[in-house]
Structure formats: C-alpha cells, structure tokens
Amino acid sequence: MNQMFRSLLSLALLLTLSAPAFAADAPPVTLNLWPATPPGDENVKLDKEQDITKDTDRPVAGKRIIKLANVSTPQIVIYRPAPEKDTGTSVIICPGGGHFILAWDLEGTEVAQWLNTIGVTGIVLKYRVPGRDKEMKWKAAVQDAQRAVSLVRSKAGEWKLDPKRIGILGFSAGGETAGRAAIFVNERQYEAIDDVDKVSSRPDFTLLIYPAYFADKDQAKLRDDVKVTKEVPPMFLVHAYNDGVTPMSSLLLATELKKVGVAAELHLYATGGHGFGLRPTDEPCTRWPALAENWLRKQGLLKMAEKPAQ
C-alpha cells in the first residue's frame, strides 16, 4: 500500500506546473501550459481529446500516424537527452495538422527523440486544435507557442537549460505556428497573466519543415500580416517543390529574411510531397535531419553546456 501511495504521489507531482525532477533514462515529463483556462477559451466546448486515426488513413513510411484531435488543455511534453550528451540546448516542437489535428508522433514525439540523439532537449507542444478563430486559425496555437517559450525560459535555471539557446521547430500548420512565434518576436498575442509572461517569448532559432499558410492567395508575396524584421531569429527551412501546400511559403520567407539581413538556410527538394516528417524513405527530403544537425552545429548550438564549478 505504501509503495502504491508513493507511486501515485510521484505521478501527481509530474502533472503540476512546478519544475519537474529530471533523471537519467526518465520518461518524458508533461506540464500544463496555463494555470487555468487558456486565453479566449472561456466558452469553448469540445469533445474528448482523442486519436481519430482510421485504419483506412494513408500511412507514412509504412506506419500509422497519431492524429490527436480536440485539444483544449495545452501542454508541453519534455524529452531529455542522456546527461552525458546534454548540450543545454532545447527545441519546442509544433506538430502539423492543418490547425485541425496534431500529427502527434510523426511531427512531434519522433522529432523529440531524434533531438535527444544529438544532445538537445525536445519539448513537444500540444497546442490547441481545432483553431478557435475562423479568420486567424493560427492564433490559439501561437498563443500556446509563445507561452511555451516563456515557460521554458523561465524554468531554464531549474531545468539546467541555456536560456539563450531555446529554439522552435514546426511542420506544416505547426510550421506556421513556429514561424509566427518567431516573426512576432516579443509581440505577445495575449495579455500577460503572470510572471511567466514577463519572460521573453522570442525563440533564439527556428526550424520550419514544409511550413504552411505564409504565402498569400496569389502566391506572389507573404500574407499582409506576416512582417519580417531584422529581429527575427535565424531560420532553417525545408520544403519539397511538388508539395501541394505551396513551397512558396518557404521561398518567400527566405527572400524576406535575406532582405532584412537575417541568416537563413533553405533546402528545396524536387519531390517528397507533404507530411513526410523524418521517417526515412527513398526520398532525399527525408534526410533533412542530418542537414539540420549540421546547421545547428554551425550555429554553435550543439556545444556541450559548461558544467558549474564544484
């Protein structure tokens, strides 16, 4: 009975907003983003959060995808690398899904596990879906992303992370989420609610994998509400030329970044379509993680964190 009580107590502690106790080979830790109802969600009523994947859905690289729907409690799920590999760098991961669902494993947990292999803490963002605002489907997601950056930075000392090496990575609609969080810099998309929101929400670097919804309807320029400035952090972008979710989003972003003098690296593949994640196939585009690792290394983000003096 005492053992059962201790186990239940440990589980309860993991689900609070307090700093988690990370240990070698520990399972991922889940934290709620907001202390109460997220901004704008006071009157939102959704069905139960669930995986809505069907047996008839198209697999990716021969495997099913977890399609997580009806997210009303935004969370971060924290995957830590082995202590001997830990660089102190962290990346918040925004899965895609058209602001309707989250491709939870393909563009979330699998990405965190890859980041762990290169010494980076992977933090999967379970942001709100479906989008709340019909005109700005991205808004709730970006609010959650900005809150996540501020929360991680506010806990950096406790979690032994470098507060100046907190990045954001997103796929498709999650790429829009991550990209807008970077482009808005410190223009928070909600009213501050506590001390966490006094901490900067600006990511230090950004990786966008087949990002969606940045090009206007004519695909001739960025959407009017996407304003790229010199304050935007460096970006790494990947897209397939034959992606039905137009590669112009990546091309136009890279062009605007060049104009304002922000460093960027763009990889445009002839084929690959959309939604390939990082599951390896014969398509060259699925080898982007190796290029991303090189980019992170060149940015100085994979240097081992300095150990505190004893």
Give an overview of the whole structure.
With 310 residues, this protein is of the alpha/beta class. Helix content is 26%, strand content 16%. The protein is built from seven helices and eleven strands. It has helices at 2-14, 105-117, 139-154, 156-159, 173-183, 248-260, 288-298; strands at residues 29-32, 50-51, 67-69, 75-79, 90-94, 101-103, 121-126, 166-171, 205-209, 235-240, 264-269. The chain has an eight-stranded mixed sheet, sandwiched between helices. The protein has a three-stranded antiparallel sheet with strand order 2-3-6. Helix 3 (139-154) crosses helix 5 (173-183). It is globular and about 45 Å long.
Write the layout of secondary structure elements.
Elements: H1 2-14, E1 29-32, E2 50-51, E3 67-69, E4 75-79, E5 90-94, E6 101-103, H2 105-117, E7 121-126, H3 139-154, H4 156-159, E8 166-171, H5 173-183, E9 205-209, E10 235-240, H6 248-260, E11 264-269, H7 288-298
Parallel strand pairs: 5-7, 5-8, 8-9, 9-10, 10-11
Antiparallel strand pairs: 1-4, 2-3, 3-6, 4-7
CA(first)-CA(last) distance: 40 Å
- The run of helices and strands is HEEEEEEHEHHEHEEHEH
Q: Tell me the fraction of residues in β-strands, as a range.
A: 15-25%
User: Unreliable runs, pLDDT <50, ≥5 residues?
Assistant: 1-19
Physical arrangement of strands within the biggest beta sheet:
1-4-7-5-8-9-10-11
Tell me about the biggest sheet?
8 strands, mixed
Average pLDDT rating = 92
Provide the helix percentage.
25-40%
